[in-house]
Amino acid sequence: MKRNYDRLFGIILVLSAAIFWGVSGTVAQYLFQDHGVTVAWLVVIRLLVAGVLILSFSVVKKDKKVWSIWQQNWFSLLCFGLLGLLAVQYTYFAAIEASNAATATLLQYLAPGMIVLFVAMKLKSLPTRTQVLGIILALVGTFLLVTHGNFRELSITSAALFWGLASAFALAFYTLQPIKLLKQYGSFVVVGWGMIVGGIGMSFIHPPWKVQASFSLSSVMAIIFVIIFGTLLAFVCYLESLKYLKATEASLLACAEPLSAAVLAVIWLKVPFGISEWIGAFCIMATIVILSQVKKEKQIPSIIKERKRA
After folding, report:
1. Where in the chain are the domains?
2. pLDDT higher at 1 or 138
3. In this predicted model, what pLDDT tens digit does every residue of 234-276 receive, in sequence order?
4. Where are the alpha helices (DSSP H) in the chain?
5. Of 3, 170, 186, 244, which is least packed with CB atoms within 10 Å of its CB?
6. How far apart are CA 61 and CA 108, in angstroms?
7. Which of 145, 146, 143, 114 is nearest to 131 (CA)?
8. pLDDT for 269
9. Over 90: is that where the pLDDT of 39 sits?
């Protein structure tokens, strides 16, 4: 009986994380459209504040690895922070600004297919039939999402397509690059420092005190939501869910993220989403489902969700 309750609790945690991530993307779109918040400022504020909060949690727990990680892994940590976390954050939000939260989130979900291809090339082996099916579904879904099924024209801007694909590449790098660091030092330490490194790096391009936005109670609440719920709590909920669920199960349930982003964008921000887009969306989400079911010995690294949203 306790096992059933634990599993249910794990499912609630991972679904909460997925919904927080999906909703935060739509909230970011609201900030860009209605309050003139810039991508660069939101990225630098989110990384710095969330990074400090996550790392503070490790300090309170008296985790000695908080400081020792810099002794031998400073270069990997810098790469993760600048080329991983910062790149993921900026390209994702830029894709939202150029299109909408639903499209940006779905395009970023092409990352698992890219990871499959990268791992296959690295191991010098062909992808399995199941993996090929997942890649084909991802490509079909992308085609429907960006063209309305019409070969002759894009239904989104070229900038939106560029940033969306760039965010998928960045997510693939983010997922694969820190694997050794995560195993050795844990997610809180690695991601916390990665955020601070990325935030400091972004500060040289856009200092956090240079604010370009129209502030109101609703915009301030939206920013707090993106940082606290869409980053910190989502990150903690997902990691806690792994105590009760397998990583593959958590990855499957986290597919609620693009679905929640799409539904909220359509209902709240009146984003036009036709039949072609919905079919494309489900094709891309099916990719995650299929790749998560690959046999263990053939399985790609799990899409660890402390990634882009964290």
Report:
1. 2-298
2. 138
3. 888 887 787 787 766 666 677 778 888 888 888 888 888 888 8
4. 2-35, 39-60, 65-79, 87-98, 101-108, 111-123, 129-147, 158-176, 179-185, 187-205, 217-224, 234-241, 247-253, 256-268, 275-292
5. 3
6. 33
7. 114
8. 83
9. yes
- Supply 258's token pair: 């693009």
Q: Which residues of 40-73 are buried (b: 16+ CB within 10 A; e: fewer)?
A: bbbbbbbbbbbbebbbebbeeeebeebeebeeeb
CA distance 222 to 134: 35
- At residue 274, the 3 state secondary structure works out as coil
pLDDT band at 302 (very low <50, low <70, confident <90, very high): very low
Distance of CA 225 to the CA centre of its chain: 16
Side chain identity, residue 252: L
Whether the Cβ atoms of residue 208 and residue 44 lie closer than 8 Å to each other: yes
The residue-averaged pLDDT of 19-36 equals 92
Task: State both tokens at 161.
Answer: 């397509």
Residue 23: band (very low, low, confident or very high) from pLDDT cuts 50, 70, 90: very high
